[in-house]
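Dear colleague,

Following up on Tuesday's group meeting, I ran the structure prediction for the three-component complex that the binding team flagged. I've pasted the input sequences exactly as they went in, so you can double-check that nothing got truncated or mislabelled along the way. The C-alpha cells for the whole assembly follow below. Feel free to forward this to whoever is handling the docking comparison.

Inputs:
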Amino acid sequence: MLTEAEIKTFIDGAIHYFAVSARQPVAVGSPYLITDGTPTVHEYTGVIAISGRRNGAVCFTAPRSMLMVLLMRMNETDTSETNMKDLIGEVANTISGNARRDFGKEFVISVPTVMETEGGKFRPPVTARPFIIPLNWRSHSAKLIVCLE
Amino acid sequence: MNAVRPLKLMIVDDSNIIRRRIERSQQIERLSVVGSAANGREAIDLFDRTDPDVVTMDLTMPEMDGIECVEHLVAKKPQVLILVVSALADKATAVEAIRKGANGFLCKPFTDRQLNDALAELLQDV
Amino acid sequence: MKSSFNWSRAQRSPTLFGAALLVFALSVLWPGFRLAGRLDDTTAALRLVSEQRRQAEVVAGALVSVRDRLESFGYVDEPLGEVRNGVAELDGLLRTLSADTSNAGTFSTSPGRAIQGAEALRADVGVLEQSWADYRKALVPISAFQGVPYADSEAAGVQLNEAGRVLAQEARKAIVAARKQGPLLAAALGKVSTALEAESTRLSSYLRLLMLAALVGAVTLGVGLVYFLIARRRQAALLADAQRQTNDILQTVKEGLLLLDGKGRIGATHSGSMLRLFKRESIAGISFEDLLKPIVPAKTLQTAMRFVEVLWSERTKENLVKSINPLQEVEVSFDTGAGQETRWLEFDFHRVKSQGKLVNLLVSVNDVTPRVRLARELAESREKAQSQVDTLLGVLHVNPQQLRSFLSDSDAAMKMVNAMLREPAREESAFRRKLDSIFRQIHSIKGEAAALGLGTVESRAHEFEDALKEARERPSLSGGDFLPLVVKLDDLFTHLGSIGDLVSRLAQLNYGPGGGSEETEEAGAPAAAARATIAAAAAPPPTPIRADDPISQTLSQLIEHVARDRGKRARLVAEGLGEVPAAYRRAVKDIAVQAVRNALVHGIEAPDFRERSGKQAIGSIKVGFRSEGPNGFRLVIEDDGAGISLRKIREAAVNRGILTSEDAARLESKQLLSLLFRSGFSTQEVTDEDAGRGVGMNVIAELVKELNGRVGVSTGEGRYTRFTIVLPSVAASALATEDVA
C-alpha cells in the first residue's frame, strides 16, 4: 500500500517535469483509485517496471495531441511517431527516476517500455489497487498510473 | 590556461529526443558534438572512433547501463570529462557514478540553462 | 572549517633570519676583512717607504764622505758600507713594492699587494723605479768596490792606488749624479709615500663606513630578532589560545567532530561527544572504517567508504560532493551487552584544505535519533491503527447480517467517493463540490460504523472527515489537495477488505465452506460481503436485537453506543421500517442514522436532568416509516428531548457571520430552522465523532434532495424535535446514488 508521501513524490515529479521541460505548469486533478477492472489509457503509454524494495509499475499515458505539443514546447521539430513514443518513455523514466530521491537506490527502475494503447486498457502487472493521478496540461489530459505493492 | 582549445563532445542517451536536445541546446563555444550513442555499447564504439574529450552520459539504458560505460570510458581515457545526465535522483547513484570516474551530475529534467551551467562547470579547469 | 592560521609566515621567519645573517656576514664582514688586510698592506708599504725616504740623503752624504776620505787618505770602508747598505735597502724596498704578491696568504701582510691593488700607486712606483735605476747606475761602481784604495810606498808615501783613483773618480761622478738624482728619488719616494697615505686614509674611511654599516646592520638584525622572538611568542600564545578554544569547543559541542587524514585515520583532535556518540573509550588513531564497521550493515559501510573515497578525489567539485552525501541519516546499532541499541546518526563532511591541498576531512556527526524516532512512531501508530486485533474484536461483536449490509453499503459509498474524485475537475468550484459530496458519503460510513461499534472503521472515517475539513478550509483547491483523501480512501478500502476477509475466515473456521445465504447479493458487492453472509447465517447474534429489520437493528445499536458514550439513556420506537422498499433502504437508513444521532446528541437530555424536568429518565426516539400511496412515503423521526433552541440558532448564525444580529432577530422560527440544513452549520461548539460538525442535518437535506423529496422540522422547546421527510414514490424518484454505485 502506498502512503501519502509516496504518491506525493510522483505528483511532485510530474509537476517538476512539466515545469522544467515544457516550461508550463501541469494541473494535477484529484487522484483516484481503480477499484475494479483496469485503468483506461490514452494513445501511448510509457511503462517503467519497478523492482527491488517495491514491486509494480509506474506508467505515464497521454494522447498523441498532447505529446505533439509537448515536443514542440521542447523545441523539437521532429514530431514523428517514433519521437512521441520516445518522449512518453522519457517522461515515465524521469518521473520514476526522480522518485529515487525519496525511495533510495533500492527502488529499481527498468528502461521504459512504450505501448500503443489506443482506445485500449492497460493491465498493471501487479494486484495492488492502481492510483491514478490525472494531469491536465493546456487543454490536454494525461494520467500517471502508480501501481506498487 | 588554454581557453580556446576546441573540445569534442559525445552524447549518450537512450532517448533520441534528449540526444537532439543536448546537441541543440549546448552553447559552449569550445564544444563541438562529434556524435551520439543510444546505449553503453554504442557509446564505447563511438568513443573509439571519435576520441571525445567530454561526454554526457545517461544511466538507465538498455544493453549497457551508464555506470558501466563510465567505467569503460575512464579506463580508456582517464582525462575524459563525463557529465552524468540522468533521472536517477538518489545520492547513492551519484556517488557511485562519481566514484567510477564521472565528473558531474545533472538531474533530469533539466533546462537549457542548467545544462550549459553544468557543462561550463565541468570545463572550468580545462 | 578552513585552516585560517598562516603557517607559511611562521615557517618563513627563521629561514629569513638565517639568510639575513649570512648576507650580513658576506656583505659586511668579508669586505671589512679584505679592507682591513689592504689597510694593513698599505700601512706596511708606507712604513717601508718612510723608512727609506732619507736613504737618498744618507747615500749622498756617504758619497761625499767617500770622496773626502779618499782625498785625505782616510778610512773609506765606513762610508762605502753606508753606500752599499743604501743600495741594498732601496733595492729591497723596490723589490718589495713591485713584487707580484697576489698569491700571498690572506692573513699575511704584503706591502706589494697594496701597490698592485691601486693603479695610481703602480704608476708612482714605476717613476720611483726609473728614478732609482738611474741613480743606482752611478752608485753601483762605488758599492761594488772591494779592496783597499791606497798604495803605501816608501817613495811616495801613502797614495791612491789605481783602484783608489777610479773610486775617487767614480765618487765624484756619483756625487754629481746624486746631486741630480737624489732629489728626484726623494721626490718619487715622497710621491709614493703621499699616495700611500692617501690610499690608507681612503681605506680607513671605507672601513669606518663599513663598520658603521655593520653597526646599522647588526642593530637592524637585533631589532628583527627581537621582533621575531616577540612575534613568535605571540603566535605561540595565539596558537595555544586557539588550541584551548578548539578544545573547549570540542568538549562542549553537541555534535561529534573528527578529522580524517589521507589514510582514513581519525586524528587526535575530535570532540568529546564523539566518544559518547560512538560509545567508545577512544577513537584517535583508528580508521573511519573501523569506527563504522561494528555499528552499520556492510552495505551502508560500503556506501560510506565509497563516498569518503570520492571526497578525497580532488577532481570532484565541492558542490557536487555536498549534494551527494549518502550518510545524512544512518541507522546504527550498538551492542550494549544487554541487547542492541539502535540510533540514527547524521554525517556531514567538509574538506579541509591547506595551501590549496586537501589535507583532512572534517566530519561532523549528529545524533538525529529523536527526529527519526518521531517519524517512525507516527508511521507505526498508523500501522497499529490498521492492526487486525482491534478489528477482530470489533467484528466479533457485530451482528453478521448487519455487518454484511454495512460492508456492501460502505463499498458502494467508497466507490461513489472514488467516482467523485475521478470526475474531471479543473475549476475551484468543481473541486469544492467534490469535497461536499465526498463528505456526505464518508459521514454516512462513519455513522453506520459507529452504530455497529466498529471503532477502527469509525476512526478512519473520522480522520477522513478531518482531512476533508482541512481541504475545505484551504483558500484555494487543486487536485494535489485531494491526495490525502485518496490515500485514506485506499486505506479504507484495504481495511474494509480485510474485515471482509476476516469475517469469511471466521465463517470458514466455524462452519466450513458451503454455508447457506438467506439473501441474494446485490450486483457488484464484494465477495467479502458474501462471505460475511455466511457468517451471518451461522453465527449467533452477539448483541440483543430488538427489532427484526436491519435498519431498526442499526438504529438501536447506534442509540446504545452513543448513549453509553454520552451518559444518556434512550430507546428506539421503530415503526414500519421493515416495509422500506429496497430502492430506499439505503437512503432511509442513512437519513435515520443522521437524524437519530442528532436526536441523541442534541435532543435527549441527561437522565437526571430529564427527571428534574418531570420526564422519564429514558428518552424516546421514534422512527416511523409509512407508505402514503401515490403521494409516496413519509419518514418521521421524533425525540422527546430539549427541542431546538431558536436562541442558539440565532447566536450560532451571528457568530458564524451568516446573519447580522438584526436579521437574526427578525427571522421567523421556520426560517431559522432552515439554517440547520446549511452545509457546515452547527450549534455545537466542540467537534467530536458523534455530532457537531454541522454535517448531520446537511447530509439529511442533501440525501432528501437527491431523492427529490422534502424535509421539514418542527420543535417545541423543552419538549420535542420532529423531522418529517416526504419521499416520492419509487417510480418517480431518480435514484442518483444507486446509479453511481
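The interface with chain A takes residues 379, 414-415, 418-419, 421-422, 424-426, 431, 434, 478-487, 489-491, 493-494 of chain C (CB under 8 Å).

Cheers,
M.
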